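My current task is to audit a protein record that another person submitted. My question to you is simply how this chain folds and whether the tokens agree. This is what I was given:
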Amino acid sequence: METSPVIITTADIKDAELLTSLSVATFCETFMADNKKEDMDKYIAEEMSLEALTNELKDKENIFFLAAYNGTTVGYAKMRAIKKPEGLNSNNPIELERIYVLKEYLDKRIGSALMTHCIAYAHNGKHDTLWLGVWEHNYRAVNFYKRWGFELFGSHIFRLGDDDQTDVLMKKQL
């Protein structure tokens, strides 16, 4: 029987440096071409520093999953259940706050493996809705989420450095 080359594990504090490196790399690959360097640098310094990600890993409200492909960590997801945006009619929602895969692995179905894992985690936690915010101009991601059955339900402002951008909010009933 063939085994999957994708292994999903739960990150812990010992993964802080790896998660920081992966976060910065995937974020830059995804957004650098469409944003000012100063805004990217400011956001990364504030939100993706080793200190910031170490604190997120220590926070019991967050859970991070790491995706390894043939032994190399190439993607991650972050979920949290402490926030409920306006317009989301749900009793027990959980947010998929981040899901990123290194560009060279986008065709390896890593995102699908991470999404499957996140949905299973949400089901196991008795959550009734999985929701997320995605930049309105990140068409690849929006289409990915639509293929997974997510639908639009609102929007909010996402501050990238000094630039206020619009994230569309999407949800999937579980």
Observations:
- The chain has five helices and seven strands.
- The mean pLDDT is 95.
- Strands lie at 6-10, 62-69, 72-80, 93-101, 129-135, 151-160, 163-173.
- The domain at 6-173 is CATH 3.40.630.30 (Aminopeptidase).
